[in-house]
Amino acid sequence: MRSRWKCHVWSLEGKRPNGAEYIFCIFLAPETCEAVVGDLEERFDIIAANTTMNRALLWYWRQVITSLAPLASARIQMALCRRIGS
After folding, report:
1. Rounded to two decimals, what is the model's pTM?
2. One-character DSSP codes across 2-65
């Protein structure tokens, strides 16, 4: 029996993955998040146009995953600096 809930991997345009925006917005200010996600989507479009969709998806999620550690580290450092400063 199939679930009526489906995981939506694609954005409304039907080709770009979504989800990265949620991940980046956890760690970044809204305006920075929008810029980072916009840059990723632009580059994704270029890669998808010049290679295959699978390669573009692999590149996209690799960028997201490799960004997590530095973003989390920066977020923790900011929180610690605030805590020490107050």
Report:
1. 0.69
2. --S-----B-TTSSSB-SHHHHHHHHS-HHHHHHHHHHHHHHHHHHHHHS-HHHHHHHHHHHHH
